[in-house]
Amino acid sequence: MLILGIESSCDETAASVVRDCRTICSSVISTQIEEHRKYGGVVPEIASRRHCENILGVVRKALDDAHITLSDLDGIAVTFAPGLIGALLVGVSFAKALAMSCGKPLIPVHHLAGHIAADYLTHPQLEPPYLCLVASGGHSHIVEVQSYTKFRVIGRTRDDAAGECFDKCARAMGFPYPGGVHIDNAAQSGDPKAFKLPHPAVAGNEFDFSFSGLKTAVINMLHNAEQKGTELNRNDLAASLQYTVAGILTDKTMAAAEALGYTKIALAGGVAANTGVRAALSAACAKRGFEFFMPEKSLCGDNGAMIACQGSYNFLAGITADESLNAAATMSMEDI
Predict the structure, then answer these.
(1) Burial class for 15, CB neighbours closer than 10 Å (0-12, 13-18, 19+)
(2) Distance of alpha carbon 233 from alpha carbon 227, whole angstroms
(3) 324 has which bridge partners?
């Protein structure tokens, strides 16, 4: 079985061909980071325009690299939610036209389900059920993966996501966009105990997250130091921030796992590339004797392979769409 996966939810135009659910035949990504860096973040209109310009070439190269043609495909999978609506519409419109023109099934994929599927590409032995922490620039979820296509959200962020907290704090610290990687790099030379940062409490659901207060605390520290004419050690602050975020994510995930009886834990999403988060969750699982799975760093960010992988399982489960498929800026995994 060969599935083409198309991803355009934010600022990467990506396409990939995956064979039999877990073997990557090709993976092509056209990133827009350099263009958006001068604005300090993603500009939705620019992102949409670049997707329009890049998507044909990216898909063509993915097919060429896999040494196949459209006729060899069993289906075409595409991210349809959530994300930047203009960016999503480019991928969805292209995938619909491609599927109709070559008579192939169209397979809708939820972006977060795609991130979870990245673990299948790294770990052939991983099978549901298990508990997965999905952390990215726009999402922080604890997800009960009941099957390849059925999910239950146990906890979610009430405000800022973990990746958003990293990026906004990084910007206040003077690091360029995207800030998360610069926080990670600076943290390697810093003292994680140098600054005592808050662990915001959330009422109502013990597994929900809140990172807005942490972000505000870091920004206020920087502003206060600037007003006093002093300078904070950026490496120490980066290390303390990373240590705090990793601790919050890990503590909540472990609490959910113990409450629900899970001993198999996975990590997914852009923040899964953060060394502090990877180390903290790995150590916590090892301490408890839990199995732990995380994707290769190359598969943590947005890519077409994860969409093709999840699309493969959707296809096997009979989840397809017709030409009425539309993009959605927001949608819960439970509404798929």
Answers:
(1) buried
(2) 16
(3) none
Sign of CA dihedral 289, 259, 151, 147: positive
How does DSSP classify residue 333? Answer: G
Counting other chains too, the contacts that 18-24 makes at CB distance below 8 Å and 24 or more residues apart are 18/121, 18/305, 18/308, 18/309, 18/311, 18/312, 20/312, 21/120, 21/309, 21/312, 21/313, 21/316, 22/120, 22/121, 22/124, 22/309, 24/121, 24/305
Measured over the CA atoms of residue 238, residue 12, residue 114 and residue 20, the dihedral's sign is negative
Q: What is the pTM of this model?
A: 0.95
Per CATH, domain 2-116+300-335 is 3.30.420.40 = yes
- Scan for tokens 């056209």, then name that residue: 30
Q: Residue 166 CB: number of other CB atoms within 10 A? A: 31
| C-alpha–C-alpha distance, residues 183 and 134, integer Å | 19
Q: Does domain 128-297 have CATH number 3.90.1170.50?
A: no
Confidence of residue 204 (pLDDT cuts 50, 70, 90): confident
Instruction: Classify residue 69 as left (phi > 0), alpha (psi -120 to 50) or beta.
Output: beta
pLDDT tens-digit series, residues 122-173? 999 999 999 999 999 888 999 999 999 999 999 999 999 999 999 999 999 9
Each domain of the chain, given as residue ranges in start order, spans 2-116+300-335, 128-297
